[in-house]
Design brief:
9 helices, mainly alpha, single chain
Length: about 200
């Protein structure tokens, strides 16, 4: 077998670390933009944002707290290594989300433009994290666990959760902001669906 035909090597510890710092920093900046616009997103991050609006609590602390119940599912479904990486990523997001607002602010940010750019940034950060064996925890882990236990597809679990999340958001947020939030969430899912292909990106 020639060198060009050899299987890709595993990511090193340094490569994993830089991917997690890069990915969580990009996602945290996107969440800071979302919060400055008063928008939400899907999955656990969206739930944490909505809770932080309702109870006027720091997003970083809420995001860290809402992910705690899901680590057990992550350990059972994906193993200790995945759980440790996921915990590290969630902790970094929680930290960055509290620090970044001290370093940057937005005097003017168009909500449609902001929603789209947040979608692009979030997808980029998430792909870096996923390709290095981590995640941002939450509903995605639970969805895989439910799929294993019941054969009900994980994608449907996530879709149902997001539908419920945005329905609840509509009771607490102006409808135009909910619409912009849906735009941003759609962009995230579209970018990941098109660009994250396990048959093409197989290094771990």
């Amino acid at each position: 077998m020639s060198k060009s035909e050899k299987s890709p090597t595993k990511h090193t510890l340094f490569e994993d670390a830089q991917a997690f710092v890069y990915g969580t920093a990009i996602c945290a900046l996107a969440l800071v933009m979302l919060k400055s616009l008063g928008l939400v997103t899907g999955q656990t991050a969206g739930l944490a944002l909505l809770i932080s609006y309702i109870i006027d609590a720091p997003f970083g602390w809420v995001f860290f707290a809402v992910n705690i119940p899901f680590y057990w599912f992550g350990y059972k479904r994906m193993g200790k290594k995945f759980m440790v990486k996921t915990f590290a990523c969630v902790a970094l997001i929680s930290l960055f989300a509290e620090v970044f607002p001290m370093l940057i602010s937005f005097d003017h940010l168009n909500p449609a433009f902001g929603a789209v750019m947040v979608g692009f940034m979030s997808a980029s950060g998430l792909m870096a994290i996923i390709r290095h064996g981590g995640s941002l925890g939450g509903i995605g882990i639970l969805a895989l666990y439910v799929q294993d236990a019941t054969q009900f597809k994980a994608g449907y679990v996530q879709l149902i959760f997001d539908a419920c999340l945005f329905a609840v958001a509509a009771f607490f947020m102006p409808l135009p902001l909910v619409a912009y939030s849906l735009l941003g969430a759609a962009v995230v899912n579209m970018v990941i669906a098109i660009n994250h292909r396990r048959d093409r990106y197989i290094a771990t």
